[in-house]
Structure formats: structure tokens, C-alpha cells
Specification:
Layout lengths: L7 E5 L4 H13 L4 E6 L18 E5 L5 H7 L5 E4 L6 H6 L2 H20 L3 E7 L24 H20 L3 E6 L2 E2 L8 H10 L5 E3 L5 E3 L1 E2 H14 L5 E4 L4 E3 H11 L8 E3 L15 H5 L8 H14 L1 H17 L3
Parallel strand pairs: 1-2, 1-4, 2-3, 4-5, 5-6, 6-11, 7-10, 8-13
Antiparallel strand pairs: 9-12
Helix pairs in contact: 1-7, 4-5, 6-8, 6-10
The structure holds nicotinamide-adenine-dinucleotide and 2'deoxy-thymidine-5'-diphospho-alpha-D-glucose.
2'deoxy-thymidine-5'-diphospho-alpha-D-glucose binds next to α6 and β8.
């Protein structure tokens, strides 16, 4: 099948964790592509995430994906929209779901309308969470056929996936969707599990583990997510949903032990805290992508990736220190 070769792409949420890693990946690996980042710079967005990218490779637009007039200005003439902008944190979706409905559902709708009007290719970044959770001893993993789930953050993401599929079927918008497993790596917000614990240790706070610590997540390095998204954007079949994973299942306590060991702490140097309400037990991806698109994850050595991630937070205290106190105060209020 034909290879799609975009020259100018909009990356929404490009100042966030996964979006900024994708922008860096494109700038480093696709010399002919110009990136237009559209980002509202919410609490999760940070312009520093795009530092060092030359002006001739990237244009930054500070704005909201729900802003129809702004989309009218920037969408005409681009070849593709790669859509990462979202409210992404589960604990926040439980405390206050409204921004999730607005950005994840209405924002995706606005972008789809702009893509339809201007005939622009659309790739939607989604999550494995839309498939709910699995029992620890379930031999199955998530596939495209797995039914969608019932937690607030998942419902907002699942709703946006359904909109994308409808805009393909009804209006013929050239779409693809990817549902990826848990990412880790540099520039992840310190509200998330791995960076929270690394920065706890760096500031002399004991790491915090929810529930019984046996919940399983399927970890992939964010750089591998970026290369997978590029493979789908350029070689994926229109209308298709692709699951991205790298066989990285681990339970939380093992991940925490690896962090503690990597940072010279003993294995019991952490606190057990209140569980997340409705805490998903296990996520696991059955990745079919590899055979079809010839994509392979490269950073599959978790110990090495974690070491590099710890080093990144240690070397970049200015990036996270300003947010630390408020993040921990919020968690403390939730008993976490
Ligand atoms: P993030 O919270 O780090 O970044 C989100 C970015 O979107 C921020 O830069 C923010 O400013 C921007 N944004 C939010 N609302 C906006 C709006 N209305 N208009 C414009 N910009 C807005 O999120 P992330 O971890 O990078 O996740 C990105 C996407 O990937 C989400 O859909 C998430 O569910 C999905 N995903 C995440 C993971 C993970 O492990 N983090 C795994 C798989 C999929
Ligand atoms: O699977 C993809 C999803 O991964 C994405 O859709 C989400 O956007 C992303 O935030 C992530 O969701 P999780 O809920 O899995 O990630 P989080 O980092 O919040 O938590 C990972 C696990 O660690 C989860 O089982 C809860 C647990 N946890 C989390 C925190 C913040 C703790 O035990 N202690 C903590 O302090």
C-alpha cells in the first residue's frame, strides 16, 4: 500500500509529555517535516519541553483545541493533525471530570470537524485504558475486539475514539487511532507514578504506593510510542485502530523497588497509601502492529530506560521543582 508523506503537521498537546517527545522524535528523524504545535499550556503543558528545537522546524501556537476560529486559521494547508492534547490523569478525572469531557470529547470533535472541512489526515492518540482492566491471572491481553470500559477517564477517551470512527464511516475523514500502554521517560508530569516517586526520593519524601501494589501496567518507553505513531501515520490503513505495546508488564511494587534500588534506597523505604477509587487492576497490550507495519520497539530494556529516566529528573530539577509542593499537597488531601 501507498506511503503517506506529510510535510506539515499539527501536533496538538505537543507541549505535554508524550506530545513533546513525539515532536522531538519528528524533528530528529524526519528532516523534511515542519511541526506546528497547538497547545493550551494547561498545568500539564510546558514550553520548556520544546526547548532547543530550531525555529525553522517548528511553529508554536498557544491555543485551545476547542477554539473553532483558531483552527480555521491554522488547519488549512497542513497535511495531517496528530492529536495528543487531552486531560490525561486518572486521579484528576475522579476529582473533577469536567475538563476531561471538554477537552477529550468536545476538543476532539472540533478537530475532526476541521479535518473534515479541510480534508486533512487525522491521527488520534488514545489509550489502552479504554479497554478497562484485566484480572491478574487472565491469560488474555487487550485486542481491538476488547469491549470498552467504565471509569471516568476511560469514558472520555473511549467517547473520543467513537467520534473518530464515526467521522471515518460517515464523512470519510482519513483517520487512524492508536491505543498505547503506559509510557515512561523524560518530561512526564510529576503527578504520574514513576516521576512522582523519583522526585519524592530526590526531595526526601517517602514514595507512595496505592492499595496492595499489585496492579499491573504494561510499560513502554515514550520514544517507542513516537516511532509507532509515525509508522501508523505514514503506513497505517485508514479507519483502523492500532494497539501499541512492548511486552512490558510489571506490577507497581516491582517498579517501585527498581526505582528505590536505582536511587540507593532500601526496598521498604516507602509508604502504603489509600487506593485509587475503582483502581484498574491490570492493563496489557497484545501488539499486532509489528507484523503489519514492520514497527519494532527499541528501548525494551526497562532497567536501562528507568536508569536514564531517573538521571533525567536528577539533572533537571528546575523542570519539576516548582510544581512539586502543590502536587504533593493535592495528593495529601486525597490521603495519597
Ligand atoms: P499530558 O497531560 O502530559 O499532556 C497533555 C497536553 O495537552 C499538555 O501539554 C496540555 O497543555 C495540552 N492540552 C490539554 N488540554 C488542551 C486543550 N483544550 N487544547 C490544547 N492543548 C491542551 O498528557 P500525556 O501523558 O502526554 O498524554 C497524551 C495523550 O496520550 C492522552 O490522550 C493520554 O491519555 C494518552 N496516553 C497516555 C499514556 C501515558 O502513559 N501517559 C499512555 C497511552 C496514551
Ligand atoms: O495506560 C495508559 C494510561 O496510563 C494513560 O491513558 C493515562 O493518561 C496515564 O496517566 C496512565 O494511567 P495510569 O493510571 O496507569 O498511570 P499513573 O501513573 O497514574 O499510575 C500508574 C499506577 O501506579 C497505577 O496503578 C496507580 C499507581 N500509583 C500512582 C501514583 C501517582 C501509585 O501506586 N502511587 C502513586 O503515587
Amino acid at each position: 500500500s501507498e506511503i503517506f508523506e506529510p510535510k506539515r503537521i499539527i501536533v496538538t498537546g505537543g507541549a505535554g509529555f508524550i506530545g513533546s517527545n513525539f515532536v522531538h522524535w519528528v524533528v530528529d528523524n524526519q528532516p523534511d517535516v515542519h511541526v506546528v504545535v497547538l497547545d493550551a499550556l494547561t498545568y500539564a503543558g510546558n514550553l520548556d519541553n520544546l526547548a532547543g528545537i530550531p525555529e525553522e522546524r517548528m511553529t508554536f501556537v498557544h491555543g485551545d483545541i476547542c477554539d473553532e476560529a483558531l483552527l480555521e486559521e491554522i488547519v488549512p494547508g497542513v497535511d495531517a493533525i496528530v492529536h495528543f492534547a487531552a486531560e490525561s490523569h486518572n486521579d484528576n478525572s475522579i476529582a473533577d471530570p469536567e475538563p476531561f469531557v471538554r477537552t477529550n470529547v468536545h476538543g476532539t470533535f472540533r478537530l475532526l470537524e476541521a479535518a473534515r472541512k479541510h480534508d486533512v489526515r487525522f491521527h488520534h492518540i488514545s489509550t489502552d485504558e479504554v479497554y478497562g482492566d484485566l484480572a491478574l491471572d487472565d491469560p488474555a491481553r487487550f485486542t481491538e475486539e476488547t469491549p470498552t470500559a467504565e471509569q471516568p477517564v476511560q469514558l472520555h477517551q473511549a467517547s473520543s475514539d467513537m467520534l473518530v470512527r464515526a467521522w471515518f464511516r460517515t464523512y470519510g475523514v482519513r483517520v487512524t487511532i492508536s491505543n498505547c500502554s503506559n509510557n515512561y521517560g523524560p518530561r512526564q508530569h510529576i503527578e504520574k507514578f514513576i516521576p512522582r516517586q523519583i522526585t519524592n526520593v530526590l526531595t526526601g519524601i517517602r514514595p507512595k504506593l496505592y492499595g496492595d501494589g499489585l496492579n499491573v501496567r504494561d510499560w513502554i518507553h515514550t520514544e517507542d510510542h513516537s516511532s509507532a505513531v509515525w509508522a501508523i501515520l505514514t503506513k497505517g490503513r485508514l479507519g483502523e485502530t492500532y494497539l501499541i505495546g512492548a511486552d512490558g508488564e510489571k506490577n507497581n511494587i516491582d517498579v517501585l523497588h527498581a526505582i528505590l534500588e536505582g536511587m540507593g534506597k532500601s526496598a521498604d523505604d516507602f509508604d502504603w497509601v489509600k487506593d485509587r477509587p475503582g483502581h484498574d487492576r491490570r492493563y496489557a497490550i497484545d501488539p499486532e502492529l509489528r507484523s503489519e507495519l514492520g514497527w519494532e520497539p527499541k528501548r525494551t530494556d526497562f532497567a536501562e530506560g528507568l536508569k536514564a529516566t531517573i538521571a533525567w529528573y536528577r539533572d533537571n530539577p528546575g523542570w519539576w521543582q516548582g510544581a512539586k509542593e502543590a502536587v504533593e499537597a493535592k495528593y495529601a488531601k486525597q490521603g495519597q
